[in-house]
Batch of 3 targets.
Target 1
Amino acid sequence: MTKRSYMALALPLIAAIAAIGAVTRPFGKREMPSLSGATAWLNTQPLTAADLKGKVVLVEFWTYTCINWRRTLPYVRAWAERYKDKGLVVIGVSTPEFSFEKDINNVQRALKEMNMGFPIAIDNNYGVWRAFDNEYWPALYFIDAKGHIRHHQFGEGDYEGSEKVIQQLLTEAGAKNVPTDLSPVNPNGAELAADPNTLGSGETYTGYGRTQNFSSPDGGVYDKPHVYTTPEHLQLNQWALAGDWTLREEAATLNKAGGRITYRFHARDVNFILGPVKPGDAVRFRVLIDGHAPGTAHGVDVDAQGNGKVNEQGMYQLIRQPGPIIDRDVTIEFLDPGVQGFDFTFG
């Protein structure tokens, strides 16, 4: 495993496991590492071990474009609210994967949009990540009132088990009337769990540093403009470019209007991490599924005709199919130049 969400393995079986459960096991009694590696704090003053003494602490590693983390958020948000008066402190550690996720303004925007009011440590230099010896987004660490890590979970799932751990640690700490039932959570939109029964596509980067299954006939030309074409047929989980693009290590950048990206996928949802090259620009795009407007299969960031706009760096949900789920082509045509595509994810 690398420092990625479980979906990054891009294997249907592993992706399915990630969607329905994850690694959860006791951690022994390791001392909670220092949070001093944080480069900034949001929603709070900097927190130290002394500030957290006597508190049960849940530390979650996240980055705001990660779909796997996004699907854990409604549960963490519910726990933070329900147990804050019982002595629980939730700390979200924002450790960026992409360079734009280091921009604190982007993180602040995400906090507002996603209703995250609990303390956030900005970990742009990976100081907190390394202190915890962490490797995954999302990762949850459960710390008791004596400052010991008692449990952890890597990846999505087992929300019942996680909440039971919180209840146990609060009870041990002497909290009164700790609930024993589960928090009511009703995820929707991008926060809805993946469907493991229909998930046959895994995370795919479009920058050459980590991409796979790139299938434009000429192959990749790195760090300089090139006109690409899309083959007549793509195999499952292959993708291709058409038009004038520059492939860079982190992203594919469109140089001229009319460029397209096509991906053959098998999943309910298609998400794409996108951003304008120039902050403040708005890049129009159109999504087609098997050559047609998506209609009722459109995602939250496009309309039924497939029209959307990239006006900030983040994750865009392009497709949410009502069914049936079969192999299909999704094509994103950009009507303006100056867009960067980073990463496909699925659900």
Target 2
Amino acid sequence: MGNNPTGEYALIANDTKRTMLLSFQPGYLYMCYGYDEYRHIVIDSLLNKGWCKPSLSIEAHPMIEAFLNRYQQNREGALYNLQLINLSGYNGVSFHEPLPARDIPVKINLPQGEIPHELFSLTSGEPLLFKIIGQELSFSVPLLEMYEMIIVK
């Protein structure tokens, strides 16, 4: 979390309707300026209220973006794909070779009754070791150069 609860409030929350009212626009400010504090205000507030549980958690450098996509009735048997993009080589309008990232821990909260039986890297084709504890799938991405996609079946 980026912020700790202090007892001082910058928002009004309605627990019954699960709504929040902020006196400013953190989404707009985050889009314009990119400061993590704006994002943390919203995310930490939702987590603190218990209104959401993140479905994806990665421990990686902030210049690594992650996208988790859930498939609906995929005939290949895939449940999810996780895409990782390494933006460490990006600088404004220039793009250079990104710095490789290794052994990135990933956790995915699974819906009740959903149990994957296979994980593999689409980039290398190699299977990945994983474990499931309760409803949490955890594994590690061994190497991320520029792009990686992990298929969860």
Target 3
Amino acid sequence: MKRVKTSLKTKIVVFTGSVFVILLLLISITLLFQWRSIIIDKEIKSNFAVTKTFAVSAIDALIYQEQTELQKENVLETYVDNFINRIDNVKFVIIYDPAGTLILARERSIGNNFHSEFASATRKMTKDEICSIYRHNQFGWIMEVSIPLSIGGKIWGFSRIAYNVEPIRSEIKNVFFLLLGSTIIITFLTLVVLYYFSYRLTISLNDLVNEIDRINLISESDSIDSSETIIKASSQNDEIGFLFHRFNKMKKRLEKSKIELEIAQKQIYQAEKLASIGRLASGVAHQVNNPLNGIKSCIYAIQKEPENLKQTNEYLELINEGLNNIETVVQKLLGFARQEHNHKTKIDINESIQKVINLLDYRLKDKLITLNLNFSSNLPLIEFDYFLFQEVIMNLLLNSFDAVSQNGKIDIKTEMIEDRLLIEIKDNGIGIPKENLQKIFDPFFTTKEVGVGTGLGLSVCLNIIESYGGTISVSSIQGEETIFTVVIPIRGENENINN
């Protein structure tokens, strides 16, 4: 057998787990960027607010110095130093005049000269408020806010203030590792739970796979294409693929078994028919022997008086009549014994029953059985296998014939009830014991003497009628009567006939 390479459980865990991990990572990354954006936006707004507050003091200092004709640096230095000392995260402050010339530059580094990059005398400035985040060689990650120092439409200069954003960067980094850790933990827990539930889901399926694996689905006749089926199965490596492959083989075996069963059923039908013919043998022999004896007598008389042409002609007519009778009997037996099942045609049930009665005519007369026929005159033709229908009637009539004693009585009735045809065969024989009523349709069950019946007749009748959607029921009073009722549904369009 081709073993399962990849279990369904593994596929469920890998596929579902991968989808979940990808979704969780996308959610985590989205949350991280949103959180980063919120933190940075909050910091930008805060730093702009602080810078604008500083700008008010810086403008006041510039105005005051201009009015008092004092050096600008003297007043600005005081404001800037106080500002840097008061605000912990400020790294440096630079003030330019309206032309972009450096007026003042202070950094949070007491006792050291200001960094050389701020020593340029002039700088191109803009009236726009600008915020930028970058990594500074001396101060690390900073957020620089540049705004014009303007009031009443007049620009007094420009300011550049750098704020330390290392704490924000550390906070974002911490959030990243927190989300990463949470993602790993949640993913692990999810895979564990998924593995557990997939195990519970597939354990029964795996048991079924193991049980089917123990069944030998390959017969000797299938061994030729076994290599081909194994190759096809190699592309189906989980329990579902294995089950599909095995059920496909089981389907083929069932189809083959169905064909074999139908063949065996036909053989059983034919065997029961031959058994019925055997039970008719004595009557048939009598029906053949009587005409043969008459023919012999006619031939003897002709040989005695060959010149008597009138007598010869009369005896020849009698010989021809006897031969016709023999031919009729033989044709009836051959027609009943013919194995031509599974050929549906429209049949007249009254006519079919009458032909079976003709086969039993001698036996009925020999036992002085009274046969009452109550055929409905307006029955539709039905789609049925002609020979199988005759086989059903023959078996039921033979059972009634065996049940009744000398001078017995058998009644046969046909009628139409709604969309069903009803055939009732009633006899006044010995009846059936109550304990046997549920068994009489079982194969090989019989209460007759050995050699009289096979025990298959009623079982065959039931299978035939049920295959056409009909039913057979029986009611009996022991010592008084037995009634077999056959009900056949009418399908499709039926043609009414008058008998």
